[in-house]
Design a protein that fits this description.
By secondary structure, the protein is an all-beta fold. The protein has one helix and eight strands; from the N terminus they run αββββββββ. β6 and β7 form a beta hairpin.
């Protein structure tokens, strides 16, 4: 069965950051957000150009608004599925990923407790994409580097209304192991 599916098992880690204006509540607020996350997952049909994928990620982000001296920490995890496109069957190929996910987050103030008067947990659905380059330097091992952006359908990643286009973004490195296909060991009588 595994040989028919063509399975890849991957691990990845990423970091990133961005600056955004709070365009919903206080236009003068400017948040600086920094990320770190890691995850793992599986991709199916590893020899095909389009590969379905399932993944789990966990990470944290630290946000600060320097004028008001506000600082929040958010720990989050997500589970999702999507499709990956690797158009070239060569050693090096561009790649494109699209996904849908469910995000769960726990929000903290700078003291590590509460969440600035809001609920301590948050859940949201979202969509995301990634683009980069992949290098399959061995038949069973692939290395990829991508720019990745996830957009949860919430504007409260800091525990208060934030940017209308809230996001988690940055660069990730992926290491995938492609499981070998299992052929029948009994030789055919026609060989």
């Amino acid at each position: 069965m595994i040989g028919l599916i063509g399975l890849q098992i991957g691990l990845w880690g990423g970091w990133g950051g961005h600056t955004s204006m709070n365009d919903l509540v206080a236009p003068n607020e400017q948040w600086h957000r920094f990320y770190g996350w890691g995850g793992g997952g599986v991709r199916f049909l590893s020899k095909r150009k389009i590969q379905p994928l399932l993944w789990v990620e966990a990470g944290r982000l630290i946000s600060q608004e320097r004028i008001q001296r506000a600082l929040t920490r958010t720990h989050w995890s997500a589970v999702g599925g999507g499709l990956r496109l690797r158009p070239l069957s060569k050693v090096v190929s561009p790649i494109l990923e699209g996904c849908a996910f469910r995000l769960n987050a726990r929000l903290y103030s700078h003291q590590g407790s509460g969440n600035l008067g809001k609920a301590a947990t948050l859940s949201a659905n979202g969509v995301g994409w990634g683009a980069g380059i992949s290098w399959q330097f061995h038949p069973q091992i692939e290395l990829a580097i991508l720019y990745q952006r996830r957009r949860p359908f919430t504007n409260r990643l800091e525990g208060r209304p934030g940017p209308a286009r809230d996001r988690i973004e940055g660069f990730i490195g992926q290491l995938a192991v492609i499981l070998p296909s299992f052929e029948a060991s009994t030789p055919s009588r026609y060989q």
